[in-house]
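A further point concerns the way the authors explain their paired sequence and structure data. The central task, working out the C-alpha cells from the amino acid sequence alone, is never made concrete. I therefore recommend that a typical entry be quoted early in the introduction. An entry of this sort, consisting of the sequence and the corresponding C-alpha cells, reads as follows:
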Amino acid sequence: MHAKPRHRATRRAPLRSMLTITSAVAGATLIGLGAAGSTLALWQDTEALPDAPTSSGYLNLFVNSDVEHQLSSAVWQNMLPGDRVQQPVNVLTEGTVPTDVSVTTTASPDLAVRVLRGDCPVGNTALKAPDSNGTAADVGDWGAGESSIACIEVTLKSSASASVHDAELPIIMRFTAVQATS
C-alpha cells in the first residue's frame, strides 16, 4: 500500500514568475529612458527659427480706467425706434506692445451697436462702423501704452418690436486687445 504524503510540495507557477520578471524589466527600461530624457513619442519634429529677433512684452486693456467698466444704462433707456445715442469712452492699452483692439457686443437684436475710434461726431451723426452686436468688430490699432477716445453708438432699429419701446435693454460689450503683428 502506498502511504499518503503528509504535505505537498509547492511549486511556483511558471506564468506568474515570468510576468513578474517581464514587468520588472519593462519598468527598469521606462525609468532608464525617462532618466535619459527620451520620449516614447510616435512622432518627433524640430524646426529651426529664422534669424529674425523674437520679442514679447505685456499688455493690459482698460476702458475708462477699469478692467471691467459698467456704462450708465440711463443713456440707453427710453429709446424709440430710430433713436440713436452716443457715448464716449477712453480706451487705454497699457503695456509695451502695439495692439489690435476689437469689440463684441451682446444685446437685443433690436439694437445696432457700433464703436469707432475717435470722438463722437457733433450733431449725433451716425457712425460709419460695422455693427458689433453678436460679432467682433475692429476698433483700430493702438500703439504701446496709447490712450484714445472711442465712441459707442446704440441705435434702436426702426423695425424694433413694440415690447422694447421705452424699455431698458441690457448691453454687454467686450473689448479685446491682441498684440499686433509687425
User: Anything to note?
Assistant: DSSP finds one helix and seven strands in the chain. The helical segments are 14-35.
